[in-house]
Amino acid sequence: MFKPFKSAWALALMPGLACAALGQKIDLSPSAPVAGRQMTAAPNGAPYRVVQDQDAAGRVIRQYVAADGTVFAVAWSGATLPNLQQLLGSYFQAYRQAQQANRHGLNVMRGTIGGMVVQTRGRVGDFAGFAYDAALVPAGVSPEQLP
After folding, report:
1. What are residue 17's phi and psi, to 5 degrees?
2. Residue 122 forms beta bridges with which residues?
3. Cα separations in angstroms, 22 against 14, 44, 107, 123
4. 124-146: pLDDT as tens digits
5. What pairing do the DSSP bridges indicate for beta strands 126-133 and 71-78?
6. Global pTM?
7. SS3 25
8. Per-residue 3-state assignment (H helix, E strand, C coil) for 39-107
């Protein structure tokens, strides 16, 4: 299900970018910081929105946001890894457990810990990943369908 992004992705958890960690609510109000933020289109009728941020290093972060503002999935891509502890928030320990249990090689990781599913790939200069909490995915949405 892992789909690498075509553009350079980044974890945009740099100062000035407004991101919420996986499982947290994001502030999408007009008064929220928006440096680098773009709202991208979700498929017609989709019960979620996609927020994309890009930092000065060209790393891009996509956050998939449910109707109640909860970030239920995140994706990243770029020449360097983003700050995954910030991006994954309370799920970071699950990520670390998945990393330790990974048997897919040095450049690919797939893991499920509790409700969190994570897939990453990376080589020097080209990193990408996708993580979501299955319990937070809106009804009718399949993580495999997320753009």
Report:
1. -100, 135
2. 127
3. 16, 24, 23, 24
4. 999 999 999 999 999 999 999 88
5. antiparallel
6. 0.81
7. strand
8. EECCCCCCCEEEEEEECCCCCEEEEEEECCCEEEEEEEEECCCCCHHHHHHHHHHHHHHHHHHCCCCCC
